[in-house]
Write a structure and sequence with these properties.
- This protein is an alpha/beta fold.
- It has seven helices and nine strands; from the N terminus they run ααβαβαββαβββαββα.
- The protein has a seven-stranded mixed beta sheet, sandwiched between helices. A two-stranded antiparallel sheet has the order 6-7.
């Protein structure tokens, strides 16, 4: 199922999503956990922001400058009405080029709609879009192997795909991030979310004179100090 077909389905679901009481808290606790790894407020991006606005509200309350992105024009129309001062991008994340880097990126229940053969490239794009130390939270199907399925949602077809946990973890590392948290948050359903953090830029320390000083040479070392402490 192509992204534009997903956009058509979400255009028809936009008002339901905006008024859905379940969505008012869906993912909030998980984002609060992710924010614990953040190094402070900065620039944030909500990918697949939808029409509800709850994640944008949370990020704004934490002092972030927030942008939103969605492929559904109807979703964005409702989102803009709720947050007229937020910058929104109407785009397919597969084709969209990041205009800058972000300190926090949310892709809650969105990237799993990307066609399976494009998901790795999108994950690489999201990882590259983070500043060093930046945090990404995203959802996937909690499967062991890659797979995809199309099911109806309130009468509209929605495509979901998952790379599988082993592949996801390899990609997270390959794309310069560290997995900070992985959880089946709706068990026994296979709804999975990950919190990953971009590795910081390594600092190089230059020692102009590696020779030990006389004081260092004469200093005795207590062997017991080298044993592990419990």
């Amino acid at each position: 199922m192509e992204p534009q077909q997903t956009a058509v389905s979400y255009d028809k679901l936009a008002r339901h999503w905006a008024d859905n009481a379940f969505l008012a808290r869906n993912g909030i606790a998980q984002h609060e956990r992710a924010l614990q790894f953040s190094r402070g407020a900065g620039l944030a991006l909500d990918i697949g922001c939808g029409s509800n606005g709850r994640i944008i509200d949370l990020l704004l309350s934490r002092g972030f400058e927030v942008e939103g992105l969605d492929i559904s024009s109807e979703m964005l129309a409702l989102a803009k009405a709720k947050h007229p001062n937020v910058l929104f991008h109407h785009a397919d994340v597969c084709r969209w080029e990041f205009p800058r880097r972000y300190d926090f990126i949310s892709a809650w229940d969105s990237v799993w709609h990307v066609p399976l053969d494009r998901q790795a490239a999108v994950l690489e794009k999201l990882s590259s879009g983070l500043n060093p130390g930046g945090v990404l939270i995203f959802t996937s199907g909690g499967t062991d192997a890659p797979g995809h399925v199309t099911n109806p949602c309130h009468g509209q077809p929605l495509y979901h795909a998952a790379l599988g946990i082993p592949h996801l973890l390899r990609l997270v590392d390959e794309f310069g991030c560290i997995c900070r948290h992985l959880e089946y948050d709706q068990h026994p359903e296979s709804h999975l979310y990950l919190i990953v953090q971009k590795r910081p830029v390594p600092t190089t320390q230059h020692n102009t004179d590696s020779r030990p000083s006389a004081e260092d040479s004469s200093a005795s070392v207590d062997p017991t100090s080298l044993s592990p402490r419990r």
